[in-house]
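::Amino acid chain::
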Amino acid sequence: MNNLTLMLLGVTAALGLYHVRNYLRATPNPTLRFVHGFLGFASLSALVVLLRGNPYAPEDPHPSHLGSIAAGLLAWSLFSGLIGPMYLEKSRRNREAILVSHAAAGLAGIAVVLLWISRQTQ
């Protein structure tokens, strides 16, 4: 499950970088937006499943909160990615501020996921 989560996050981040390239060149691609958002939702869903763990395994006596922090960051990234372009079309400055927070939360979430998974495998 770790591999699926990491693969989805990596593909989502790569599509996000490609979307930024298209945004800066003023060549929007609505299909790319949809695929990026769908994969972002799938990544968050895979992370939540990973957080739930195996229901038949004994509980970890020292649970890590890094997974919850990563889920919160990725949830904010997903929410701001949906809301930013939808409601702030008239103000470019506000829309770009929301999209910068979207990218920052997404990248921070990916970094925390990598840290959390690396600590789990030790």
Q: What stands out?
A: Residues 92-120 form the longest helix (29 residues).
